Amino acid sequence: FAALGTLEGPYFRFIEDEPAALAGFRRSQIQFLFAVRSFPRSLAYLAARIEDSAARLALVRNLWEEHGEGDPSGFHVLTFDAFLRRLGVDGAQIDAATPGPEVTAFNVALHGLAVAENLPVAASALGMIEFMFSSISARLAVVALARGWVERDRMIHYDLHSKLDVEHASELFEVVRSSWRTEEGRAEIARGIDLGGYLFDRLYEDLAREARRATPAGTRREAICA
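Structure (tokenized):
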């Protein structure tokens, strides 16, 4: 994760340094909502392939937490929706949004690897994404608070995932523990970690471009192209 440099990449440079970053942050986070909606399905696809009941239970527990442990108000997709509204995004704008090619490509890739890739590769890739999202969530919460986009007592979703996703990553890596015993298994785990890291880092690079389109300069470029 450190080698990828995601936290030093274009998305974080934009939201931390761009004076007019709030509009772009809102725009990119609306797109990220579609990744939040889709990720539990990738976990479910993966869980369905695990024959060992004990290993499958860890992913079921992960899915249960994604769904608020049975409390609809705690569904992670709803806490993210609440974050967007506290960020100042209008509900009608959320309802009217459609997934762009960037997040669609990410979601399709995760669904495909969860269904079709070797289990150690798929579980390791999703585990890497969960691991990365823990640090990303913490950083996004810090930026949103520091720039005054969200008040501290109204921060939601990202403060939870900064802690919870370390546990979720551990559960996914536990699924592949037995594969680590062989050279071939270690190679597949490494390939999965690289794949998950690539996909998530690439998503934030794409989100940076999406965010810039909402700045005055980005708006002018779109008008010229039109």
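The two ends are 38 Å apart (CA to CA). Residues 219-226 have pLDDT under 50 and may be disordered.
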